[in-house]
Amino acid sequence: MAKKEVETLAVLQCLKSSYIVIDAERCKGCHLCISACPREIIGLAPHINRMGYNPAAVIEEKAHECTGCAACAMMCPDTAITVYRHSRVPSAVVA
Ligand code: SF4
Ligand code: SF4
Fold first, then answer.
1. What's the rounded Cα separation, in Å, for the pair 42 and 56?
2. 39 CA to middle of ligand 2, Å?
3. Could you identify the atom of ligand 1 that is nearest to the CA of residue 67?
């Protein structure tokens, strides 16, 4: 496969991936999202938030594996997780 094709595939993959954002200051470190994630991409951060908890955080090396299933967000009792799904590929990239 040519280098250009590899680069294009990488861009498309990136555009299709989903991701989550965790509001660390709302998190109580209850582990529910960690248990709920089928891809095991959430862990606890080493720092303490203003409430005195180690907040949940995405494990950077596994972030690209997020499917946007929202199991973590549905489980969170503090609505601290927002899920972003990217499934539309801009036509300029496809053309
Ligand atoms: S949306 Fe799904 S795959 Fe992504 S972090 Fe949450 S539970 Fe895991
Ligand atoms: S479920 Fe919510 S409160 Fe519990 S660790 Fe995850 S983000 Fe924090």
1. 7
2. 16
3. 3
